[in-house]
């Protein structure tokens, strides 16, 4: 059974047909009522003694047992029917069948079955019908019971009032069962709606992840076309020029070959940078800062000195937050390598009163400082936000956080701030 078929307390979900009066309570009440009805028949025998059986007592016993069997069959049929006219008819038939046993004596073991029959009238038809049944049975029982006992109506009235009172108790029981059924049905609908909503969230998350990957691939393709394509064109032109002038100016030809060699190394380095940026290496079972260490290690092969500082504490990040954290670090390392030509990068994971903080800071070499604006990225005097930073900002905003990027002194700083209430859960220490 799937997890979507489990209710909120871990029990298996029931089908719609089983929900209305289908819990274990009703079958138990029905079995007890039938047992009481059978005992009522035997009580008629014991009142006269087995040795003094008459045809009348034997007929009464057989009648009670026959009625008990018919009621059991009707209740079994009712359980298999869907809520509606079929169940309503079954409940009416049971109540009519019980009028006979009620007339065989005063308030007795027949009453539990009568009470349950009136309760099922409430469940299957309504409260008004059950009250009408109470009045009808009482009105029929008054003259007939008086006749069978040989008493006056005044002497029989207390017994009839007792029967009516117990039937009213059955009506109240039916109201309780109806409310219980309504609560079960509402819980069933809520669980179904919750499962559908969770499934929609899973699908949307999967689609969003695919869209994010597609956007990253599109960005990579665009920048590879602009950067790597330009270098490959430059290599081709240098080699072509060298082949034309090598016969009469070999020194110039060898210079162009050297330019082509240097450009090819730059192209290979850029390709490796993109491979690291789009396919980060993570440690096996690495989560949180351990995963950041693996990402940092993959960039150290480029010559960058990458340092990771963990001030986050014992927090376990949600999957969406962890993915955004890795993408932010990847973006910061890629930009430090490609744009700033940085030598050192410091990655900080910290917890503050405002939430989770991830920062990537890299030095700006002296020969690159003039080209880096002092204002933050996206501001009027700052650099325009590229596709990578814009995508990170949108994802952070959806989670209630923010992303900022810009120059701080002689360093460039990319920060991600996310709130705790949505994204971080304290780890529980294991029991010793």
TrEMBL record:
Outline the extent of the Signal transduction histidine kinase subgroup 3 dimerisation and phosphoacceptor domain.
216-281
Annotated membrane-spanning segments are 21-44, 56-76, 88-104, 134-154, 160-180
Please name the top-level EC class of this enzyme: transferase
Q: Which domain of life is it from?
A: Bacteria
SUPFAM superfamilies in UniProt: ATPase domain of HSP90 chaperone/DNA topoisomerase II/histidine kinase (SSF55874)
Q: Which UniProt keywords apply?
A: ATP-binding, Kinase, Membrane, Nucleotide-binding, Phosphoprotein, Transferase, Transmembrane, Transmembrane helix, Two-component regulatory system
Q: Which InterPro entries match?
A: HATPase_C_sf, Sensor_HK_TwoCompSys, Sig_transdc_His_kin_sub3_dim/P
Q: Please give the catalytic activity noted in the UniProt record.
A: ATP + protein L-histidine = ADP + protein N-phospho-L-histidine
Give the EC number(s) under which this enzyme is classified: 2.7.13.3
One example of the protein's molecular function in GO is:
phosphorelay sensor kinase activity
| Gene Ontology terms: cellular component | membrane
Return the protein name: histidine kinase
């Amino acid at each position: 059974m799937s997890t979507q078929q489990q209710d909120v307390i871990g029990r298996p979900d029931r089908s719609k047909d089983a929900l209305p009066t289908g819990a274990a309570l009703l079958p138990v009440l029905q079995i007890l009522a039938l047992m009481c009805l059978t005992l009522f028949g035997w009580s008629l025998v014991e009142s006269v003694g087995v040795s003094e059986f008459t045809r009348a007592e034997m007929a009464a016993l057989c009648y009670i047992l026959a009625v008990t069997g018919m009621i059991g069959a009707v209740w079994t049929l009712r359980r298999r029917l869907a809520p509606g006219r079929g169940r309503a008819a079954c409940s009416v038939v049971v109540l009519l069948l019980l009028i006979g046993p009620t007339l065989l004596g005063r308030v007795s073991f027949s009453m539990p079955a009568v009470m349950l029959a009136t309760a099922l009238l409430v469940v299957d038809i309504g409260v008004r019908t059950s009250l009408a049944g109470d009045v009808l049975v009482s009105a029929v029982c008054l003259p007939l019971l008086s006749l069978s006992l040989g008493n006056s109506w005044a002497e029989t009235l207390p017994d009839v009032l007792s029967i009516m009172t117990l039937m009213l108790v059955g009506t109240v029981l039916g109201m309780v069962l109806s409310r219980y059924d309504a609560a079960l049905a509402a819980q069933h609908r809520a669980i179904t709606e919750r499962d559908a909503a969770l499934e929609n969230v899973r699908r949307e998350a999967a689609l969003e992840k695919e869209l994010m990957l597609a956007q990253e691939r599109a960005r990579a393709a665009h920048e590879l076309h602009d950067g790597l394509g330009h270098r490959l064109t430059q290599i081709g032109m240098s080699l072509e020029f060298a082949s034309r002038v090598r016969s009469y100016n070999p020194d110039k030809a060898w210079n162009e070959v050297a330019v082509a060699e240097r450009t090819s190394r730059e192209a290979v380095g850029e390709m490796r940078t993109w491979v690291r940026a789009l396919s980060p290496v993570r440690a096996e079972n690495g989560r949180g800062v351990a995963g950041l260490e693996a990402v940092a290690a993959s960039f150290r092969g480029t010559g960058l000195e990458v340092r990771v500082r963990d001030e986050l504490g014992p927090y376990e990040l949600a999957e969406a937050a962890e993915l955004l954290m890795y993408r932010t670090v990847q973006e910061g390392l890629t930009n430090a390598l490609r744009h700033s030509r940085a030598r050192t990068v410091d990655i900080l994971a910290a917890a503050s009163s405002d939430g989770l903080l991830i920062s990537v800071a890299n030095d700006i070499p002296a020969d690159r400082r003039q080209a880096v604006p002092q204002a933050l990225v996206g501001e009027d005097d700052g650099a325009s936000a590229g596709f990578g930073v814009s995508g990170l900002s949108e994802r952070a905003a959806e989670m209630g956080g923010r992303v900022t990027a810009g120059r701080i002194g002689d360093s460039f700083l990319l920060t991600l701030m996310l709130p705790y209430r949505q994204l971080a859960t304290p780890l529980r220490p294991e029991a010793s």
